[in-house]
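Feature request disguised as a bug report, sorry. It would help if multi-protein outputs had a clear separator. Right now it looks like this:
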Amino acid sequence: MTNKVGERFQITIDKAAREQLGVQPGDQAVEWVEDGRLVVAFLPRPHRESMLGILKSMTGRTIEPITDWQALKDAAWTARSREVIASLHREPDPDEQHEPDSSAP
C-alpha cells in the first residue's frame, strides 16, 4: 500500500504492518537512511514487570511490586540505625584489631 507524505512530513503506517509489528499509539520510532531507503524501528515500551518476571522464574515464587517506596526506605533507615546504635553500646573487644582506612588522607 502506498501512503502520501503529509504537509508535516508524516506518513501513516499500514494497518497490516502495524499489527504484524505490534505498533501502538505512543510508541517511539527511530528512523535512519540505509542504502537510499528509510528504515524505521520501534523502541520497546518501558515496563516494570520484566524484572519481577525474571525473579519469579529464578525463585519460583511471585514477588509483589513495591508500591510504597517511602515506607521501604523508612524501614531500611530504622533497621540500620538500630544496628549502628547497638554497635556503639557494645563493649569493645580487645582482641579485635581495626586496620587503618587506606582512603583517609
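(second protein starts here, but nothing in the output says so)
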Amino acid sequence: MMSEPNGPVIAAYIAAAPERVLPPEVADMARLCLADWLGVAIGAAEEPAGRIVREVAAGWHSQGRATVLFGGTAAAPFGALANGTLAHCLDFDDTYVRAITHTSAPVWAATLALGEELGVDESTMLSAFVTGFETAARIGDGLGEAVTARGWHGTGVFGRLGAAAAASVLLRLDAERALHALGATATQTGGLTASFGTMAKPFHAGKAAMDGIVAAQLAADGFTAATGLFEPGGGLDTALVQDRSVTFTPIDLTGWRILENSFKPYAACHLTHPAVDAARGLAHRIEPREIASVRAEIGALAQQITGRKSGEPATPLEGKFDLNYCIALGLHGRAVSAADFREPWHPDAMVCATACKVESLVSPEMSFASARLSVELAEGGCETMSVAVAKGHPGNPMNWDDMHAKFHALIAPHLGSRKDALFALVREFGRGDILGEIRAILATL
C-alpha cells in the first residue's frame, strides 16, 4: 500500500494541533526546552552577535508586542530574529541529534514572539512549540548527518520549518495553508557550516525564527508556494543532498521526538561533548603537566566540523568548534562553561599547550555521542577513558536538577535573586496565566 505524501501528512498534523492533547511528559519536556532557551539566551547578554542583531532590528522601529530580551518590544518577526540569534550565541542550546538541529532556539523564539503578538494563551504556545519541534524532527529525521556533511546547518534548514509549523498553529492555519507556509519556508533554506565559529552561526537560528513567522503570516493571507518539496526527490532533499544518496522517507508520526532531545552541559559545539566528558573524567586521574600526548577517537562528523584545528583559537567562537582546545579545557578540569569562552579573549597558555598535544582520528566505533581518549604520560603509562553516551543525550539525560544548575549559572549575573522565581514560573508554563509574571521579570534585564 502506498504511503500518503509527506507534505499533506505533516500539514494535517500541524492543522490538528488545537485538538491534540499533550502527554504530561511531553509538556514537561517542552518546559525543559523553554528553561534551557531562556537560560542560554539571557546568559548571552554580552555577546556581540546578539547585541548587533538586536540593535539593527530596533533601528527598524517596528510596532509590536513581542518581548525582545534586553530590548523592549517589537513586531513578532523582528523579536524572533533578535531572540533566536541570542539563544544560539553561546552555542549552549539544545540539539535534536537525528536532524543535527538546534531546535528550540528558532522554534521557541518564533512561538513566544508571535504568541505574544497574537495574545494567545500559554497552553496554545506550548502546543505550538511541540508541533514545531515535532515537524522539524520528522522532516529532518535521518537527513541531519548527510546535510551537515555537505555543508548545510541543520538549524537553518529544519529549525526554519519548525518555526513555520509553530507559527502556523498560532495563526490557526488549515492544512492547505500550513502546507504553503512550509513551502514558503523551505525555499528560504540556508545556513552554512563554513560559517561556524563566526557571528553568522547564531544568526542562522534567528533568521530561521523570523522566516518561519513571515512564511506563516503570508500563507494566512493566501500566499502560495511549492507543495511537493517534502517528497522523496521533490526538491528540498535533492538540493541539500545532490548526489541523492539520502532522500526523504515517509513521515512517521508515531511517538514523540521531543522526548529524544539533547541538552548541553558544555558551552561548545555538541560534537565536542563526548570527548569533553572523557577529558573531564581523566582530569581526576592526571595532572596536565604529566601529559605527553593525547589521542582522541571520535566520529567522522565530529572530525569534519571540530577536528584538525590548531588548538589555539583566535576568538571564543572559534574555541567552541576547536575539539583540541575543548579537550584541553576538560583535561585541565575546567567546566567548559560560558565563562570559558568570554570576551575579551585571552586563552590560557597552559590550556593551549595541552591542546597542541591532542591528535584526533576517526573511529568507526564512535557515534555522535561517543568518544575515547588515550593520554600518554611523560613518565610512561597511559590513561584511557571511553564515553558511550555523553551527558545530555538520550540514555544519559539532563533532568530538572541539572537544568536548574545550568540555568542558575547563566542567569544569576543578570537577574540575581529573581532567577529562582523565573525558573519556578517556567516549570509551570502552560498551566495558568503566568506569562505576564515572566514578562515582568524579563523587563528588568
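Even a blank line would do. Unrelated, but nice: The CA atoms of residues 59 and 77 lie 14 Å apart.
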